[in-house]
Specification:
- The protein is an alpha/beta fold.
- Helix content is 39%, strand content 18%.
- β8, α8 and β9 form a beta-alpha-beta unit.
- α5 runs parallel beside α6.
- The longest helix is centred in the N-terminal third of the chain and has 18 residues.
- It is elongated, with a radius of gyration of 26 Å.
């Protein structure tokens, strides 16, 4: 084969595929011939032959002094596959995201999967999980830029939390995707203070119901004083759980005391704060990981769980039932969240003009020995 002809065919095939798969939109300019020549390590006449062939087939138009622009319009509804990206900063640190991501990936691999997405398939792009402490925000921005450069069809995003910069970074990421006209579905939480909401679709557990059911359980066990443990710069899901807690308390004819407390520097320091509370009867932790760190501290100080202190939390991660005292917790509906998120994101890609939706799914209270002997 003539080497020049082989190079020309390679360039032609590359850009034809890019257009057919929707990576170039109508009217978008190709890189300059000089840039393409450098990319493929070939001459500009070879580049010109490939682009002229695309022009003859109706894919592009070429004009001296202007460049090469795409004129073939791609109907996204006719594509075999959507390309969806994920930005899940805490995939390795927060167990609920493993089953959520796993189910989304399973749907991407299952070409026969169909709920509300008809015959549309999708491929899943993963930005990785290199969210090293102190570098996570920068990495999230890098992944966002990568997806925008690759012109993905949509993105699943779990907003960052646990730092003072998280809100600004979340806002920056969402604005970049907005400017690129790439839709997003937020997983588990919004990044705006409750009850405000962003302009993006959200799929999450019903956090108000979760707080309500955990509180009702403790009240049914005779608890009159409920302490809720939070942590600085946490997601707005915590405020929703507290709302549910307060609704449950207000429904009782007898007085129920509800108080919030914030974690200290170490589990030991946090327990020091907790045991200073008068009439301490029950503790609701913001998640299972926090409860798992505190239970050994309580036991070391001779505090009997659940006889003297009933401990609950949220998520129902794998180790919740393996703790020295198995944990009563509210299970996240991870599989249902993943399936709903896929359907909503693909519908958003197909119908970008529709108003954003918030889809909340009830979980389930799992009762174990940390509240019932």
């Amino acid at each position: 084969m003539n080497p020049r002809k082989g190079k020309m065919q390679k360039i032609y095939d590359f850009f034809k595929k890019e257009i057919d798969e929707g990576r170039y939109s109508y009217g978008e300019l190709f890189p300059t011939e000089a840039h393409i020549a450098q990319q493929f390590n070939t001459s500009r006449p070879t580049i010109a032959k490939a682009l002229n062939l695309l022009k003859e087939e109706g894919y592009v138009t070429r004009k001296a002094g202007y460049g090469t622009a795409v004129v073939k319009q791609i109907n996204k509804d006719k594509l075999d596959e959507y390309r969806l990206g994920t930005i899940i900063p805490y995939l390795k640190d927060t167990e609920i995201f493993e089953p959520i991501f796993g189910e989304i990936a399973q749907q991407a691999n299952n070409k026969n999967f169909s709920l509300a997405i008809d015959e549309n398939n999708f491929s899943l792009m993963w930005g990785g999980n290199n969210f090293i402490e102190g570098q996570g925000h920068e990495y999230a921005l890098q992944i966002a830029k990568k997806y925008i450069d690759q012109k993905v069809d949509g993105v699943f995003f779990s907003p960052l939390e646990f730092s003072e910069q998280a809100h600004d970074i979340n806002l920056s990421i969402c604005e970049q995707f907005n400017n690129a006209n790439i839709p997003m579905v937020l997983l588990d939480r919004d990044f705006t203070p409750f009850p405000q909401s962003s302009s993006h679709d959200l799929v999450s557990m019903n956090h108000i119901i979760a707080g309500y059911e955990v509180a009702k359980h403790l009240i049914s066990l005779g608890c009159k004083d409920i302490l809720f443990l939070s942590t600085p710069n946490v997601a707005n899901t915590i405020s929703q759980r507290v709302i549910g807690l307060n609704i449950a308390a207000q429904e009782e004819s007898s007085h129920i005391s509800v108080k919030m407390i914030t974690t200290a520097n170490t589990p030991k320091d946090t327990v020091d704060l907790i045991i200073k509370e008068p009439n301490l009867c029950s503790l609701i932790c913001y998640n299972d990981a926090a409860a798992a760190k505190l239970i050994p501290e309580f036991l070391e100080r001779g505090i009997k769980i659940p006889r003297e202190l009933k401990v609950t939390a949220f998520d129902d991660v794998k180790y919740a039932q393996l703790l020295s005292i198995p944990l009563t917790t509210y299970r996240q509906p991870c599989i249902e969240i993943a399936r709903a998120a896929v359907n909503i994101l693909i519908e958003r890609v197909k119908h970008p003009e529709t108003p954003p939706t918030t889809h909340q799914i009830n979980g389930k209270l799992i009762i174990r020995q940390s509240t019932v002997e």
